[in-house]
Each structure stands twice: as C-alpha cells, then as structure tokens.
Amino acid sequence: MTAPTDHIDATAPAPSDGALFEGRTLISVDAMGGDEGPAAVVAGCSLSAKINPDIAFILHGDKALLGPMVDRDPHLAGRCDVRHAAGVVSMDDKPSHVVRTGKDTSMWATVESVRSGESAVAVSCGNTGALMAISTIRLRKLPGVNRPAIAVLYPSANKHGFNVMLDVGADIRADAEDLLRFALMGASYARNGMNLPKPRVGLLNVGTEEHKGRSELKEAYDLIRAQEIEVGFDFVGFVEGGDISGDRADVIVTDGFTGNVAIKTGEGTAKLVGLRLREAFKYSVLSKLASLLAYTSLRRLQRKIDPRRVNGGVFLGLNGTVVKSHGSADATGVSAAIKLAAQLAQNQFNDKLAARIAATLPVEETPE
Amino acid sequence: MTAPTDHIDATAPAPSDGALFEGRTLISVDAMGGDEGPAAVVAGCSLSAKINPDIAFILHGDKALLGPMVDRDPHLAGRCDVRHAAGVVSMDDKPSHVVRTGKDTSMWATVESVRSGESAVAVSCGNTGALMAISTIRLRKLPGVNRPAIAVLYPSANKHGFNVMLDVGADIRADAEDLLRFALMGASYARNGMNLPKPRVGLLNVGTEEHKGRSELKEAYDLIRAQEIEVGFDFVGFVEGGDISGDRADVIVTDGFTGNVAIKTGEGTAKLVGLRLREAFKYSVLSKLASLLAYTSLRRLQRKIDPRRVNGGVFLGLNGTVVKSHGSADATGVSAAIKLAAQLAQNQFNDKLAARIAATLPVEETPE
C-alpha cells in the first residue's frame, strides 16, 4: 500500500519518509464515497487543512481524478498523499457482497490504513452498511464488545447544543449486555468528543417509570445502574423520545433499529418545519418583506440546527476509530466529519475506550 | 347510570327521553382527566357544540363542579348531560390498579357509556395506559384483533397535511399478524377519518430495501402485500423515519415501542426548532423588528404545525371508538379531539373497520 508508485508527485513525500507528516495526525479518507463525488471530499479536506495545521491526509480513490484536484489546492500541498484504488463501493451494494469482493475499493483501503496503524482514524461518506462490515472484519471488535454501535451527535436543548445518541443503525437489535456496552462507549465518547467529564446517560424507553418497557430494557437498566459510580457517569434512568433533543441526558442509549428510526424521524420533522416556514414567509408581500428583514435571523437559526455542522457518525467498539460522514455531505459536512475524527484521534479516544470496556469485564473472562 | 337523580337540572332532559338529543351524535366525555382540569374540557365541549349542531354530550365527573360550568354555558344548554362520578384516574395510576379499583371513576363511566350503546364514541384526556386498559376490558377486542393500536395524525408534507401512524403506544410489541391488522385498521382510519379512498400504506423499517430489517417485518411485508388489492389500499413497501412526515405514504405502520419513540422524537425536535427560532429573532434590534413584521407569517406557521389542531389518538381494534386527547390539551385541543370523534362516529367507522377485519379472516376461523 505504501509503494512509491502510489504517490501522486514528487512534492508529496511518502509517509514512510514522515518528513512533512511528522507530528501531524494522519487521517485516512475515502474520496470516492458520497453523493457529491470526490470534489466535495477534496474540498472538505482542504477546508479542514486550512483551519487545522496539525492534520494530514491519505486520500484513497481514482488517482487520475484526485491527483489534479489535490495539486491545485494550496492548503493540501505537502499534506495529502493520494493512493490509487480502482474499485468504488456504491450506495446500493450489499455489505456482504462488498466484504467478499471489495478488496480493491477506496473504502477498503481507507479502513486498511487504520488497521495497519499508518493512519490514526478513517473517514468515509460512503455506504454505511458496507463501511461497518469492512470495519468490523478488518479492525475487529474490541474485547468485551459483542455488537459495535454507531454514535451521532443530535441537536439538543442542553448547554453544549448536542446529545450523543447510539446505536443509530450498526445493528437492528441489542440485548441488555449490548446496551450496557453502548452506555459505556457513549459516556466515553461524550468525555472525549464533547469534553464532558461526567456525562448524564439515559436509556431510551416509552416512559420514564421503572416498570415500563421491554424486559431487556429493565435488565439493562440494572446493569447500567451498577456501573454508574465505578465508571463515573450519571445514569438518569429511562428517557423518552422527546429527551433526544432535550436537556435530561447527554447520552441516549438505544438499539440500532429504534435509534435509526428516531434520528430519521427527527431529521424529517425538522425538514418539514423548515418547508412550512418558507411557505409561511412566501404567503404575502408583507411576509416576503419580513423574510428579507429576518434573513440574518433565519440564517443564524439554520447555522444552529444545521446537520452539516455535526456531521459524522462514529463507529464504536472496534480496534480503531471510523467516522461515517453523511452520504450527501458537501465540503462543509466533510470538513466537520474530519474535525471530529481529528479530535477523537488526538484525544486517543479509542485506547481510552478499550481500557474502559476491559476494566468492566469480569476477571475470569479472558478476551480473545 | 341513567337514573334521573344523575341529571343536573330540569332543563337538561334525560337522554332516555331523547327529546333534545334525538338525531344528534352522542359523545361520552371524561371531564376529569387532563392536566388543564375540567374547565378546559367543558370549554372544549362548548367550542365543539357551537360549531357542530349535530352533536351532544354526556359529561362524566364531579357533578358539583361540572354542573355550574355547564349551566353557565349557552352552547351546551340542553345538549349536555352531566353524570356524577366520584373517582378520578390520575396520570400516575398504574393501569392494572385502575382496572381493579377504578369502577367509580369518570374514565370508567366514559367508556361504559359506549359499551352500553348509549354513546357513539368516547373522549378522554386522561392517563393513556389506564384508558387503554379500561377500554380493552370493557369494550373487548374485535374478532381477529390480537393487539389493539393507538393511531395518531402526524404533520406531513402530503397534500392533506397529515399522515396516520400506528401503533404509537398501545402495546410495546407487535408480531407480523399484528402489523397486518394495523395496516388494515390504519387504511380504514385514513378512509373514514381523512376521506382518502385508496390510502398509501408503508411499513416502518431502517431502510427501504426488501432484505432489510427484523424477521417479523419481512413476514409482515408479505402479509400486507397479499391483502393490498382485496382491501383496496396501495402498499408502498418499507418506509423510513423520514417518511413519517413525508409524502411517500398516508399510513405508517409500526409497533407501539418504535411508534411511541418516533412521535415523541418528532415532537421534541419540532419544539427545539421553535425554541431556536425564537432565540434567533431575539438576537438583535433588527431581528426583533423582523419578528414583528413576520408575526403573521409565524402565526400561520404555528397554526399549520400546531399539534392541538390534530389532537386525538384513536384506539383501534375494539368494539367501540375511543379518542385519547393529549393530557395537556386546552379548549382548542379538546375541541379537535371531539371533532375527530364526531366524524368517526358519523361515518360509522368502527362498524366498517370490524367488517373489514372480519372479511380478511380465514373462513375456518370462527370469531368468538
């Protein structure tokens, strides 16, 4: 993978030299995933490079396409190594198919760079199921983790402006033990990704009373309660759908089916409110005038609740950190995902998370 | 229950007389449930009576409290019979407790009036779990229905402005057969409550591809597909969380756990967007001025997405229609729930629904 012929030109040094990359956090980026194409990914890398001098990139994909884009970009000069990958994972590819036949894809190479230890973290806008499948097979699960999870930041009323929610779709089910691991991983993510020393953790249910809900939730309730003091988070008990955007918990724990439906419902509802807002302002001459005057306010609102600003689902529970950027991410979105990836890498998040999970394992359980 | 001593005064005739109630749709209303107290419920009845000359009420609760309120109200004169009930179901009461000890409550009497055939439909703002438990025990399930469901109208981008969603919390689980019944009941509700001759029905999942999701969803997919032509709806297949507020389906079918989390997530997200919108407009002098000018537009928006305007979860699958109004409903909210109840009663919705479910039962299955 690091053969000299893979490098785009003489000015971009091989990472094995380490000359210009030295001291920088190396981020492995899949340039070919995403609905907006490689240009949006390269532009996102450029935005990030401009703001953050401590990062550098390995960009995987069609070298003939990517090379000229990177060469033209002043912020990426000497900080981006392009590696050729002939194959591309499409949004419709089945994960099982990609795992069998996708070794030549940019997505595979992106994950492989983390597995080999060359890059600190991976970022892709591609097919979520395929990315999770490749990541699980190549990076493997952390000792003590049965199901990995995808965590996202959801806009909320709390003072940081966001809550962590997991799982939002790595798997369609979770038992009580899985939910306990999600709580531990979510708390760790809130500590390292959001700088919350003692995050509040809530378990998603259809009511806040202890007697409510499915049996695995009641069991998970007791398991999480038992770890609360040892691990140093604040378990607020059961929370409801309304708390995902609320201020009762910083971390919302649920199975991947419920979490996936919830975030898509929330996104859809926010979109509908936006649609109705635009309609309301188009209604009359006076309301059109008002919308002109309100332009700055509405822009400010849009920035606050812009999903692109918190773009990035993080795969938790693997031997390595992978950030899944939204498929439709533009340069701003890709840049947000890269910022998150860099922060997690610089906090050595995954090492801390692994240690935390290991500490909660029974002594007699020997991790493979 | 219909003893003359139960009537508030000589001007309000006994419904057994039927003199003034004749030809009117009789709605049984629980006056004591809800956070806003009986005054909001009476005000809601009054609002409805003013608009709709074809309805009359039996109001259950504390007669000493309700009597004077009803007497003072010109719209309710001769159209509202107050029945005394000493007990009140609180929001914290466990359903199982209410079923054992709640025979003297206003909620029990409200449902009982539908069971006896006196009223056409019941409305309560009280404890959802208790109302469902009383309704299930007293009205009993329709032949062929294993789990009743609660259906709500959710604001959406389709041309009617709302989608039907069920179950949103009658039960925390549903198997493939239950999901099929939900599809039949939801389609029937969309026909009679929303006047859609051929509703589009979608099954909620984490993706739209046929191979995705839990096994009971794949099974339900085939069962619903098989009924589509016979029953006369349009099965659009799997839908995602974003489609709940979208225009792909008119009826969203899911289990009560997922549905409950989804609607609460949507409500919470809409609330957060509203909060951020108000903050954005308070930001500067110019934005405050803009908000004054935009006042009418914002009011119009609020009316369009106002949950009070579509207040009312309908219990489906029982021998009788029960409408659950939101616990925090004010007069406008109660009135919306009554309007829905009246429309369903006047369309003889429950008889049609029962016939529809019966028609899909195998011939060898003899309903009890």
Automatic annotation (TrEMBL), chains A, B:
Specify one Pfam family.
FA_synthesis
What pathway is this protein said to act in by its record? Lipid metabolism; phospholipid metabolism
- Annotated catalysed reactions: a fatty acyl-[ACP] + phosphate = an acyl phosphate + holo-[ACP]
Cleaved signal peptide residues: none
Claim: Cytoplasm is one of the keywords in the record: yes
* A biological process from GO: phospholipid biosynthetic process
User: Could you give the subunit structure recorded for this chain?
Assistant: Homodimer. Probably interacts with PlsY.
HAMAP family xref list: PlsX
Q: What is this protein called?
A: Phosphate acyltransferase
Q: Which organism is it from?
A: Sulfitobacter geojensis
Gene that specifies this protein: plsX
